[in-house]
Amino acid sequence: MLDGWEGKTSFAGLLSGAVELPLEQGVYAVEIPRCFKVSFLPCSTGGRFKGRDPTVPIRRLQEKWVEGADILYFGKAGGTGLRTTLKDRILLYAKFGAGRPVGHYGGRLIWQLAGAMDLTVQWKRTSEEPRLAEKCLISAFLGEYGKLPFANMTR
């Protein structure tokens, strides 16, 4: 599903500053690495942006889990009228997961996985509207697994 993607690193690698991300629009995906043991945390490590607690009940996490899927989330950066780059958006997501109160509430379920900083994120620049590219990825996933990726809340 992720053929032709440009880069791949862990969230921990991103926060260490060891990876250079594109200053262009595109799409990104969070993937579960091999040998990752899935365990849900009772409280999210995500930041409390505007005071909102991103924690959801473990029962909800269990319902959202997609057995056998490697992809946990698809996101986008930029688009018509938006100057957000892949670098901006992915780093914001990683900082949110590290507990910083920044605005990346989408994909928040990731941050209730124990060891979430070891998850990998991949990215791809796109000349097409990033929202359309993201929708295509989500639709393909839905077609294969019958439900949305774990941390995507909407199509």
Concise structural overview:
The chain has 155 residues and is of the alpha+beta class. The chain is built from 4 helices and 4 strands. The protein has a 4-stranded antiparallel β-sheet with strand order 1-4-2-3.
Detail the topology: elements first, then pairings:
Blueprint: E1 7-10, H1 11-15, E2 26-31, H2 58-64, E3 71-77, H3 86-97, E4 120-125, H4 130-145
Antiparallel strand pairs: 1-4, 2-3, 2-4
Describe what this molecule looks like in 3D.
The chain is an alpha+beta fold and 155 residues long. It has one domain (7-145). Helices cover 26% and strands 15% of the residues. It is built from four helices and four strands. A four-stranded antiparallel sheet has the order 1-4-2-3. The longest helix is centred in the last third of the chain and has 16 residues, at 130-145. The model has no long low-confidence stretch (mean pLDDT 95).
Rg for CA atoms: 14 Å
**N-to-C span:** 17 Å
Q: What order do the SSEs take from the amino end to the carboxyl end, as H and E?
A: EHEHEHEH
Q: What share of the residues lie within helices? A: 25-40%
Low-confidence stretches: none
Strand order of the largest sheet: 1-4-2-3
The global form is globular
Mean pLDDT, to the nearest integer, reads 95
Number of helices: 4
Number of strands: 4
Strand fraction: 5-15%
Largest sheet: 4 strands, antiparallel
Number of domains: 1
Structural class: alpha+beta
